[in-house]
């Protein structure tokens, strides 16, 4: 039987690997549930933006570094997005922001990505999940959130 479930592009912004690990866990859960996924450990701006259609679903897992900067693997992507401001009306997306509440710029990169996509016309599927690495259980919190996220697809 042909699956009608959408393919999910998982975008990862990481510097030290925590968010990559988390994204891999989510990928495992999604594939177990029958979703097709594509992992983007160093998201390519041109490839991803040019491929956007009404069937495009991005799940962005974004770590904050520096003073609210994006994790290294998505710095170039974020720079292009801010500079080029592509219209993204057909896109559906959700954001998991990873950070640490000991920083004033808590989860700022994930918040920025969420705000930027919304401003570019993309459709937010659900409220952003914020994971505080100094207080939360990342796997438990993201797994619970993923359950409600997949209901929306
Ligand atoms: C040098 C440094 C700067 C950081 N800056 C921020 C920040 O501005 N805001 C925030 O919420 N977390 C910040 N963090 C916490 C990271 O987001 C957290 O350690 C996260 O797990 C890193 O994810 P990654 O391993 O995927 O890169 C910082 C961590 C480091 C080591």
Automatic annotation (TrEMBL):
- Official protein name in the record: Flavodoxin domain-containing protein
Q: Which domain of life is it from?
A: Bacteria
A GO cellular component annotated for this chain's UniProt record is: cytosol
Question: In the UniProt record, does the keyword Aminoacyl-tRNA synthetase occur?
Answer: no
Q: Which organism is it from?
A: Pseudidiomarina terrestris
Q: Which residue intervals define the domain Flavodoxin-like in the entry?
A: 8-150
- TM region(s), chain numbering: none
Q: Which cofactor does it need?
A: FMN
InterPro entries membership? Flavdoxin-like, Flavodoxin/NO_synth, Flavoprotein-like_sf
Q: What UniProt keywords are attached to this protein's entry? A: Electron transport, Flavoprotein, FMN, Transport
- PANTHER family attached here? NADPH OXIDOREDUCTASE A, NITRIC OXIDE SYNTHASE-RELATED
Q: Can the keyword Secreted be found in this entry's annotation?
A: no
SUPFAM superfamilies with a match to the protein in the record: Flavoproteins
- Print the organism lineage: Bacteria, Pseudomonadati, Pseudomonadota, Gammaproteobacteria, Alteromonadales
Report the GO molecular function annotations.
Answer: flavin adenine dinucleotide binding; FMN binding; oxidoreductase activity
Q: Which Pfam families does the entry mention?
A: Flavodoxin_1
């Amino acid at each position: 039987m042909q699956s009608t479930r959408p393919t999910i592009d998982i975008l990862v912004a990481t510097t030290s690997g925590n968010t990559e690990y988390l994204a891999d866990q989510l990928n495992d859960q999604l594939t177990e549930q029958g979703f097709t996924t594509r992992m983007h450990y160093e998201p390519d701006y041109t490839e991803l933006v040019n491929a956007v259609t009404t069937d495009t679903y991005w799940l962005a897992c974004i770590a904050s570094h520096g003073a609210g900067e994006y994790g290294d693997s998505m710095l170039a992507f974020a720079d292009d997005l801010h500079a080029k401001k592509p219209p993204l009306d057909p896109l559906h997306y959700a954001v998991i922001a990873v950070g640490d509440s000991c920083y004033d710029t808590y989860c700022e990169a994930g918040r920025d990505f969420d705000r930027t996509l919304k401003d570019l016309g993309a459709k937010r599927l659900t409220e952003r999940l914020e994971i505080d690495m100094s207080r939360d259980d990342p796997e438990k919190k993201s797994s619970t959130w993923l359950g409600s996220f997949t209901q929306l697809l």
